[in-house]
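Progress narrative, work stream C.
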Amino acid sequence: MKTFIVAPKIVHEKGAIQCLKDIDLGKTLIVTDEFMVKFNIVKKITDILDKKSTEYEVFSEVEPNPTVDLVINGLQLMLNFNPDTIVAVGGGSAIDTAKGMVLFFNNVMKKKNISTIKDPYFIAVPTTSGTGSEVTSYSVFTNDNGLKMAFNEDIMFPNLAILDPDFTSTVPPKVTADTGIDTLTHALEAFVSNMSCDYTDMLAEGAIKSVFNYLLSAYRDGADILAREKLHNASCMAGIAFTNAALGINHSMAHALGGKFKISHGRANGVLLPYVIEYNSGINNSDGELEEYCAKKYAYIAKTLGLPCSSTREGVMSLIQGVKILNKKLDIPLSIKELGIEEKDFNRLISEMSELAMKDICTQGNPRIVDKNSIEDIFINAYGN
């Protein structure tokens, strides 16, 4: 029996942040990074809190690829301040850090058997359009060895997601590209997941269309507020889709590749995506037989996007080429080699990366069964000649 959960309330469109004026926040802890403070993005929120005479603290130590130690540092502040509300402001790293703090706080309270202190009200304000973290129960942390670990706990669902495109208008083109391709990967993996359903398919399909229709516009002109708003909504829609339908090996492999070679998550996803579609669809199977379930769903997306699709095979090939063309226009490399990774370093770590990908929680949702050798083959194909 399948379930479909939409946990956070979502407030969206330009100026949506003003909804904070009407919420009794109590003591508020803002979780963010130094960039958000330096460029006055957090000020859009603290100005509202100041006018409401709301007591608040700012934890601005968030860094890319948040570590467990970072979460523990935030937890210590949280225990000392005892906030009524947590507001995460930033990209996936800030929201994931806040999620970890909420999770650890809940575990500490349970361990101490303290029932008088409630979990804080959790608000997520994304400043990039890619992770969908504001509406998911997933988070990713990096351990002491630089390995990325994915977690999925219901306690990490935000209570409120505020999607205000004004918060994305200054995102640089490279980040816009990487996060946009992350949205596309979320949506495509959710669409073909072995746990997809009608609800997730409709959201995933809508997100895919928006990425193909608006990502290049936002990449070329960051001030295009319509494109920014459409991508922000697409990221959220894809997030709802994959938190219900799960992801797949594209994310498992991206976690391993990004963790070992310090490649941004979205960029790693984008490079791998065409090769994962090839594998899942069976387009290069030696016996010529397609993997029917995946191939038909990929072909459906190709047809929906207006790509050539006179047959299932042509549809799959069109989608693969469509993704590659989009990557090229976004200046995203078409191979792992083009990321600047030396072949000897890649070969030295491919076995370990494949093992990590097999153990990753995202692999459970992949529609085609994989083993370590299959993962290695995909990595090798993606490396390029």
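Work stream C, second folded protein:
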Amino acid sequence: MKIRRILATAVAAAVTTPVVFLSAAPAFADTKPTPASTQKPASGEEDPDKDFAEYEKLVAAVAKAEEKVDALEKQREAIEKKIDADDVGQAVKTELAEAKKALEAAKAAKTAADETLAKAEEALRKLLETPAEGQEPPTEQQKADAEKAVADAKKAVEAAEAAKTAAQLRFDAADNAYDDATVELFRQLGRIDKELKTAKQELAAAEKALEEFENGGLGDCKVDDAVKVALSGPKKVTVGTSAVFSLRITNTTDRVLDQVGAYADATPLLDGEGPVDENGYFKRYITVEWTGAGNPHWSPLTEEFDTVEVGEIAKGGHADVKLRLTLDAKTPVGPGVAFAVGAYENNDKTCGLGEEYAHANFDILAAKTDKPKPKPTPSETTATPTPAPTDGGNDNTTQQGGTSNTPVKGNLAATGANENLTQLGLAAAATVALGAGALVIARRRKAGTNA
């Protein structure tokens, strides 16, 4: 039954979560994980430990996806820096620079060889011209020397041309290597962008799965006011006794709700916080049981049987149940709070969790002692102590009141309670908010991993 899955996380959180720190609005504490429950879940019920394991799996998936995205983004940043700095590798840059110098030298040598050849050819041409009147014709040796100078210059030009060609080939290869290295950087950037896109999609999917889990497995279920709850009960409860509170679950819609339930719990509050032990674990002092039509016996609300289930409620109708709060003998004296939130699931697969919570504040009184009290002097007066409520079944509903309905996302509305009880309402809001998600469990488990 999905409604039990919706509320199961809230129960596990309320039973196991350490202090719920409060301020203007509820804030959840990062704390250590609670020990695994020693109780086995009933057949067909959710196992809180499996929820924890599933949560850890989802958190690990998110962490892994985040690490992958971070690593790829760092790689991308490094590649961009290389591109901006033309960092294609020192060897490639050195070879290109040296090849460029060699090419420039080869070109200069070729130019010089060409000039030498031109001068030699010009000298030979003048030497072979018909001598002017009165001039001696060149000797055979002079002709031979001029011809040899031309031949040597031609050989030098050929050698310079070959050197220039080789230098050009070297430069072209170095330049191509430089270009290839630059292109490879952009290719790497493209590959990283592709991987980064996929990694971000994987991260989004992992975060969505975790968010759905943290939202109590609501999935497509709504958070709305289709089911409202009202809670009332005694204003004072004595340690070691029981008291009965009244819970009304109302269908506010214009249709029949097929399966309706509510999550309810109670706790003493110390300095506006839930009681914890020396290790920061939540300490349960109050046992909550319920009874109503279709459930004539008092049924405890536990990690396995966590929901008040009232079944179908007609449009505009309501169901009334009783909650019996039994205070352990070690329950701290001071303010206390009972709280509840509703949920529903229909046969057409529509479902939802209550947007508003209800809480009833009460004072936890010290248990009476058997020690005789000294008789007062005639001038003194002794106030008659208020009798502690006893387990009176469904009739024990005297001193009703202390209820309010406030959206989980909002601040606590004024209810006329004393200053200490303001924090109680916030605690109720914070704890009931757990019914909409496993946020506290998630943070608690994460903190425990890092402990």
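Confidence is low (pLDDT under 50) at residues 1-40, 379-451. No further action is required on this item.
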